[in-house]
Amino acid sequence: MKSLNKKIGMGMFWALLEVIVSRGGQIIFTIFLAALLTPGAFGLVAIVAVIFELSNVMVNAGFAQGLIRAKSVTERQLSTAFWGNLALAFFLYLVIYLISPWVANFYSQPLIEPMIQVLGLGVVINALRIVQTAILSREMNFKAQMIASGLGTFLSGVGAVVLAREGAGVWSLVFQMLASQGIATLVQWISTRWVPAITFSKKDFVELFTFGKYLLIANVINVVFKNSYALVIAKFFTPEVTGLYYFANRITTMLSQQLAGVAQRASFPALSTLQDDDVSLRIKYQQLIQISLFVMAPVMIFLGVLAEPVFMIFFGDKWSGAVLYVQILALSGFLYPVHSLNINVLMVKGRSDLNLRLNLIKKALQISLLIPAIAFGPTAIVVSQLLGTVVSLLPNTYYTGKLIGYNAWMQFKDMFKPLMAGVISAVVISLCMALPIPDTILLLILSLLAGSGCYLGVSLLIGAEGAALLWGVVQSKLQGPGNRK
């Protein structure tokens, strides 16, 4: 168990560092690009990004998770997954190319057609690293993944900013998305030094696809629905409004989903070894949710409270319409670790069929909230997204309770303390922001420091489990291996 804890801890460290370097870099470059581009440019990318995400999910086909979860893999299985993914990628690119005129016509935006055709190449690029990612994850080598992702983010971001300054407009965003994939793929190939053999096994392909088919369908539904809010706004409202929503969603998603992804990605390979030990799984997943919520609460709550001054300082008046969307979506982001880690339990237990069933139930609930919201405007649509996230907690926690005994009530109790500490610290930040300090940036920094100190103090005072667990890790590191009992 101690060895497993060490693997998860090191995995989370490097995965967290990847988030800081890669996603932090994305946020910084997004700030630069937002200053150089209009909301309308982001609105067009919002439509194209759906095709990009959907095709990447379909290329994966659950093979990566199947390879990671397997107790052992052969060279033949790896090569089979590689060639199967690549063949599927070329087929999907052909489909993307053919439907691009129809999509452009549906949204009455001719520029979308060449954007889809160019960005669709990312499907093939992504297919080239599916197996490499699985190999690095099985080895718990998140350091190499961090380097690949970090280089991709930095180099593509610099290139995008240069293109935007030269007047490339929306194409600078297309370049950023495509180049980041290409650079990360190249670095992962160098890191693994794995080259596929010229072999393909129908038996291995069927076995991998048997696990992955339900995950594939669930992920396709997930991507379509996740982007349905942007697609609906794009159809009924202007590209500028779509861009404001897409930008707000992108900022909150970069923070919430990527922070939650640290625990999900780092824990999945290690905890797959405990797939037959329900008691140990419950203990570990409860600890992961407690730590994730402890980290997520201040990030999302502070983002919501400070959204207005932050947008005024970094983005200017043209993006002020996105502030309310950020504040609403930040509340949704707080719950993301609970959703993602509950799904992780199903993957560790090999129940991708239950994941598909859950997705169908959740999407039905969320669609029932989305459709009536359309008539009330984009703000109502964003509110429906938040309500859908909250309502989906019930079905999402149901199977975790059945499989490992970590039910909805236990998870709600684990949410309460970090949420309470976050709300109290948000009040402190709001009071600090009202102080008569003329320098807005200085006031923002002081308010953030006061809120952070309040959050830590309240968390320790009320005995937040996530704080205690993290403090135990810090103490263990400070003591060093020679002083541990």
Commentary on this structure:
The protein is mainly α. The chain is 84% helix and 0% strand. The longest helix is centred in the middle third of the chain and has 37 residues, at 278-314. The chain is globular. It has helices spanning 2-36, 39-60, 63-69, 75-106, 112-119, 121-127, 130-138, 142-165, 170-192, 202-226, 228-236, 239-271, 278-314, 323-334, 336-348, 352-373, 378-391, 393-404, 408-433, 440-462, 465-479. The chain contains 21 helices and no strands. It folds into 2 domains: 1-239, no CATH class; 275-485, no CATH class.
**Residues in helix, %:** over 70%
Q: Rg, please? A: 22 Å
Major sheet details = none
- Overall pLDDT score: 83
| Sheet/helix structural class | mainly alpha
For the record, the count of structural domains works out to 2
| Uncertain ranges | none
Number of contiguous helices: 21
SSE series = HHHHHHHHHHHHHHHHHHHHH
Q: What distance separates the N and C termini?
A: 15 Å
Strand content: under 5%
Query: What is the 3D form?
Result: globular
Number of strands: 0
Q: In a few lines, what is going on in this structure?
A:
The chain has 485 residues and is mainly alpha-helical. The protein has 21 helices and no strands.
What are the key terms here?
mainly alpha; 84% helix
Can you lay out the helices and strands and say which pair or pack?
Blueprint: H1 2-36, H2 39-60, H3 63-69, H4 75-106, H5 112-119, H6 121-127, H7 130-138, H8 142-165, H9 170-192, H10 202-226, H11 228-236, H12 239-271, H13 278-314, H14 323-334, H15 336-348, H16 352-373, H17 378-391, H18 393-404, H19 408-433, H20 440-462, H21 465-479
Helix pairs in contact: 1-8, 1-12, 2-4, 2-5, 2-6, 2-10, 2-12, 3-7, 3-10, 4-5, 4-6, 4-10, 6-9, 7-9, 8-9, 10-16, 11-12, 12-13, 12-14, 12-15, 13-14, 13-15, 13-19, 13-20, 13-21, 14-17, 15-18, 16-17, 19-20
